[in-house]
Amino acid sequence: MTAIPQNLDPETVPKDCLPIITVRHLRNAFGEQVIHDDLNLTLCRGEILGVVGGSGTGKSVLLRSIIGLQTPESGEIEVLGENMVGRSEDEAKNIRRRWGILFQNGALFSTLTVAENVEVPLREYFPGIQPPLLDEIASYKIAMGGLPADAGPKYPSELSGGMVKRAGLARALALDPELLFLDEPTAGLDPIAAAAFDQLILGLQKRLDLTVFLITHDLDTLHAICDRVAVLADKKVIAVGTIPELLALDHPWIQEYFNGPRGRTAAQSYEKGVVA
Amino acid sequence: MADPDNHNGDNPHGPVYRVAGALTITRAATTQREINAMPDPLTIDLSEINRMDTVGAWIVYRTVRDRGAKVIGASRDEVSLLKEVAEFDQPAKVHPEEERGFIRAIGELGQWVEETGRTFVGLLGFFGATLIGFANVIRRPGRRFRLNAVVQRFDVVGVRALGIIGLMSFLIGIVIAQQGSVQLAQFGADIYTINLIGRITVRELGTLMTAIMVAGRSGSAFAAQIGTMKITEEIDAMRTIGVSPIEALVIPRMIAAIIMMPLLSFWAMLMALLGGGVFVWFSLQIPPITYIQRLQEVTPPTDLWVGLIKAPVFGFIIALAGCFQGMLVEGNSEEVGTRTTSAVVQSIFLVIVLDAVFAVFFSNIGWV
Lengths: 276, 368
What we know:
The structure holds two protein chains of two kinds.
Chain A: E1 19-30, E2 33-44, E3 48-53, H1 59-66, E4 74-79, E5 82-83, H2 89-96, E6 99-102, H3 114-125, H4 133-144, H5 161-172, E7 179-183, H6 191-208, E8 211-215, H7 219-225, E9 228-233, E10 236-241, H8 243-247, H9 252-259, H10 261-271
Chain B: E1 16-23, H1 28-37, E2 43-52, H2 54-67, E3 70-72, H3 76-87, H4 101-139, H5 141-144, H6 147-158, H7 162-185, H8 193-231, H9 234-241, H10 245-283, H11 288-298, H12 301-328, H13 333-364
Parallel strand pairs in B: 1-2, 2-3
Helix pairs in contact in B: 1-2, 2-3, 4-10, 6-10, 7-8, 7-10, 8-10, 8-11, 8-12, 8-13, 10-12, 12-13
């Protein structure tokens, strides 16, 4: 196994990179079980960074650490120029306003309609915004999420899996975030819905100038929309780069992942331009 | 910053709303208010803004849409953002449409009647299904009877309830004795406090309070456990493997409730008598030996039978309502909560109705 070249080392900040998220020497552990040890990662402004890794490598724990739901044992996390570790709830609120999160299962509030779900962050941070403006904002966010107008008054239990994700995305976009976190956005969707969701994210990222932190298992998503991919293994990010750059490494997990039967199929379809 | 003073200024076509700086969500409320305050025909001048997000663009867009305002000074980026939000314009619907007033009330009444009817029919059906389940178990006890599950339920429903039911009954015994003695003392008849304690706890309260406690403790647990299993598709998995959920889940819980209710009731009666005894000993200076003798004289054995015959029936009702409501859970986790609540409400209600029926029945057959 060759050493990781300098340009793929997760500690290196790429050229022309305006760091939005900087993670340095992160360590997370649950009791005896160490999840992350000396984990480094940089997310640059305007990029879509895909985070991949086997089950149980702590992708979701990394996300939870970055957004402040999990206090790391040690290390530094900086988001949008602010240090995230050991902040008070009030200070964190100002940063939370600037990002949106799509949880794996949508995490919609089940007692509220889709439109009311989108209105929750608006009401929380900007109580001055009144109906009808409030309802109209919710409505166009729902449209941005790719849902029709009649999805607004529906309850989450009446939605299909794909619609739940879109509604969750609409809520994540409610405050016009600069940064979007997506936790397995295409998991549980059929390939057509997943491809449509990928394109939706790509389109929104371009239009709204978003920076996207995307956790995924979906090789198609990685090929279709990610600018760079961070590989999580051995309790740290072992390399960050474009897929061809990563393929040049002879790390066993990376080879297995991208060059396994599924990985090759996904890669071929993009080379031929079948899906793109 | 906005400059709403610039009404009618040098523009012959009406007031100009000039925004400077950032037109973003942070200023959405103020901006909207200022725009609302200005008369038509309005011109919005965007030449001095340095940043605009979709909310800002939306406010400009809706002003153009609704009031025919003119936008000047927009840069290329701003024009394209305005076009983009326009693409996402769709009717804003927030709440499901509902009928109003009288029609709605009638509709809700109808729904309630239908729901109640369905619940009743469903409960009957479930009752039938459990009878069939029982029959199957009795026919082939070796294969169908799940001893481990039943014993485990005995522990959860019975043994672990001893503490709380004992304490509750002890306190109820004290309360009956205290209230009774205060009233009876007015006639100088405080010795009859013992009659009151003996008859009311053995005949009625021991069983009834135990039933209410078991409904709250175990009936709710049955509904929640089975409901959760329904949501996680465990029940469906059981069916496909060929295990009958009625036999595996419902029958053990029913047996446990039916057998544990009389035992717990008896325990509750004893503890209530003890509580009453302690009170009369310290408060009325009636020694325990007199208390016990007097209890034996005034409490007929039929009272005990009245109490104990009701208990397994109540246990059956509690388990039936709990398991039935659990099986009705569908969809989301919120339903587990509502079904658990209905299980408890339903079982306590049915227990009290049946208690009244029993009261009439036993007095008619002469057990008074």
